[in-house]
Amino acid sequence: MSSLIELTLAxxxxxxxxxxxxxxxxxxxxxxxxxKCRSLNAYIVETPELALxxxxxxxxxxxxxxxxxxxxxxxxxxDLFCTDDVQTTAGSNILRGFKPQYESTVTSQLxxxxxVMLGKLNLDEFAMGSANITSAYGNVINPWxxxxxxNAARKLVPGGSSGGSAAAVAARCAIAATGTDTGGSIxxxxxxxxxxxxxxxxxxxxxxxxxxxASSLDQAGPMTRDxxxxxxxxxxxxxxxxxxxxxxxxPVPNYLEAIEGGIAGLRIGIPKExxxxxxxxxxxxxxxxxxKMLQDAGAEIVDISLPHTKYALATYYIVATAECSSNLARYxxxxxxxxxxxxxxxxxxxxxxAKGFGAEVRRRIMLGTYVLSAGYYDAYYLKGxxxxxxxxxxxxxxxxxxxxxLTPTAPSDAFAIGEKQDDPIKMWLNDVFTVxxxxxxxxxxxxxxxxxxxxxxxxLQIIGRPFDESTVLGIGAALEAxxxxxxxxxxxx
Length: 493
Fold this sequence. Notes:
By secondary structure, the protein is an alpha/beta fold. It has 17 helices and eleven strands. It has helices spanning 9-17, 23-36, 48-64, 105-112, 149-152, 163-170, 187-193, 227-237, 255-258, 281-296, 312-327, 345-356, 359-371, 377-398, 424-428, 435-440, 469-483, and strands spanning 43-46, 74-78, 116-121, 176-180, 196-199, 220-224, 267-271, 300-304, 404-408, 444-451, 457-464. The protein has an eleven-stranded mixed β-sheet with strand order 1-3-2-4-6-5-10-11-9-7-8, with helices on both faces. β10 and β11 form a beta hairpin. α11 (312-327) crosses α13 and α11 (312-327) crosses α14. The longest helix is centred in the C-terminal third of the chain and has 22 residues, at 377-398. The two termini are 17 Å apart.
């Protein structure tokens, strides 16, 4: 039997059902792995006592023959999901010490199905970032370290904002993890760390109990070792929630069936606008390899156009910052977390928000306040919403010609911590291939397909029609089989 921490979700479930090991043994293996990987700074809070308690409950259910769909699987939870009586910070000082007295819908569904929580995973502050370098709890370090691990000393970014989730799954200190994706925050870190991440359709997974960044863009999703695990975990995370007014009441398919069907006859669109200026040749080569793999698996390749793609990044930073300036207005030192003293109420607000928020969060609040201000609302926010509609219409037209779309996930492999830190525009360009999907509310998945010249993972992105995660997963399974990506990071438990 392989080491317990090498097993996928599907393999671990099989081992638990056939009693090759217990949930307590599996959980203890991950608790030990988590301790070994602390140098990655992937976890903000570890919850070993809670994990072992949940594992013992799972073992009891296996003995009784009443095991649940995810029984005994040790997950990491992104610290953006509120968890009952466990600190939830969103990576920010302003929520330091905040312990919700309720459970987010997504985590409650995972625990309903028997999952075990190892702890809360680090992230960019309020999910604002593409490198996991804006957290108040320190940078997360990518377990991959390039062609020369000794000299690199593991100082590459894991992507963001779900960098803690990605690093934990890649380094084998969580069997899988939750992520959230506002502009690519599941897919880009998945690509940087060589794992699989799927952002479902907006409305597929409840946002209730997830700390909001940009409410019309945020969506929860699984981050896993392979496509099958993504299908297993998404089935538990998805579903209608009356507590979330944007949750959509549609049946949740059996995603496992989707990955067994093959892709013969499916039409895969290749958008010409994704060949952006300055894209590295190895990204283009990887994309061509992916196209060939899908052709060989029986798919038909068609050229498509998404003409408003070039406006997506600018539109995203208008819409997202406008919504964040509104959502983060609630953090004033009165109801949550940190409070700084002042001579009067206004000064207390000012001091609390100035010290509680980091530089990137303050930058986005200021930008969002500006685009919503009187005199600029029509020029920026209203125009941004019109362009967003045009981007969504582009995808609607494209899906008349094809069943799914294949693109690169990110314009580069993982970069060094500090490399782009002084230039926010360069940092924001990391999301150039992922943000159009959030603006249109579509499902999309990144999975590893190859290694760069620097021996770092590179991912490709599959975009699907609304609520057609099944087709995305099916194409992902075909691409995964053809790519046969087995590389592991040099640093792992």
